[in-house]
Amino acid sequence: MISPVTRANGPAWIEVTVSGGQVVEAKCSGIFFRGFEAILRGRDPRDASYLTQRVCGICSTAHGVAAAFALEEAAGVQPPDNGNLLRNLILGADFLQNHIRHFYLLGLPDYVRMPFVPPHAPGYQKDFRLPEKINLDLVERYFQAADMSRMAHEMVTILGAKAPHQHGTIAGGSVVPPRADVLLDFTSKLKRVNRFIREKMIPDAHVIAEAYPDYYEIGSRKANLLEYGLFPKTGEDRERYFPAGSVIDGEIEKVDLSSIRESVTHSWFREVTPLHPSGGETDPEPDKGGAYSWVKAPRYGGRVMEGGPLARLWITGEYRRGVSTMDRTVARTLEAGKIGRLMEEWILQLDPGRPVFSPYRVPENGEGVGLTGSMRGPLGHWVRIKDGRIEHYQIVTPTAWNFSPRDEAGNPGAIEEALTGIPIEDGNQPGEIGRVVRAFDVCFSCATHVVVLGKKVRKTVITV
What we know:
Elements: E1 12-19, E2 22-30, H1 36-40, H2 48-51, H3 60-75, H4 81-107, H5 132-160, E3 169-170, E4 173-174, H6 180-211, E5 225-227, E6 230-232, E7 240-242, E8 245-248, E9 251-253, E10 260-263, E11 297-300, H7 309-316, H8 325-349, E12 365-374, E13 377-386, E14 389-396, H9 398-402, H10 414-419, H11 431-438
Helix pairs in contact: 3-4, 4-5, 4-6, 4-8, 5-6, 6-8, 7-8
């Protein structure tokens, strides 16, 4: 059993069974209860853009965007193009800080021998393949990346007031019109971050890939991928820079939202027939037999799907080498480069004299769906409004798609699939497991956990 798996904290664990030098079974467990669906019931729908960002600290803007999209659909409002551009820029900056942080600070120590001091000691000391000079260069870049990811976070604050959990993304658009001096500051930082991605990060990913070519096979699974689309081209949201798509056995199809169901057979929730998120339930049952995770198991037409940068670039046709540990890693750096280039275009499209917000009234009754791409995959928010308040809210996160437990048919989740069959050279230092799992960029850092002190996690008392 391995925990933590994110280098951040321990809200998840991986349990694997190794036999004959390979993983024969894997279980992924999220051990924190995320109660936002319950928290939101009865609240003003406008609260969702702020509160749901607390689901996650490193990808908070994506939740703000999804919540804004959901309310906009329910209210029948569209942001002006300026508001759409500002939201894209804020979300884009959050993508850049995430991808830089993940590749270097979370992923690189799996492949680069770091100085053997905390936080890298104690740690595994096997299977480091880079020549000493290249290894030292990448260690130096590890520390440079901390500055670059912080600079990208500063870009979030320039347009969104703070980071994480920015305040610049709301239903109807954004909150503050762009000023020339603000945009100059943002542009200056963006160019520095883009230069680092272009000249350091992407080449470093190829260096890692060349040294560890077997990871183009390790962690592989079928090309069953899902994305909802990312970055609307206009406020009308008829087309997105990263289009939506489902990939079934390598073939691209349109997304059919009616095909989504969430299974809870092996999750700590009251057993129900797999439900669509629009009617989903979040009814905790922490002592449920056979359950091993607080994560639900979303399925698409019964299939186990995976999302993230690799899925998005597969759908655009920009990367289709395979679906493996190294493919996920390389695709993340390529996506960072593409997003950075798009952001330079969006800044030039801003018109400082035009509105950034479209006024609207919260509907007395209505429903909406907010779909976007997040740093690690497809993110969906489903809201139902009654008497001007939130009656029903469901969030299906990327980590639910990637890190789900088994479903009612016993099918393992995407990471459980990717782990099954991988070789383990040394059971005392199973570094292969961390490499496979972290390539998905799973995220639990800001899950909400309701506990009674002195009681075990699985005996948690949930108050709603």
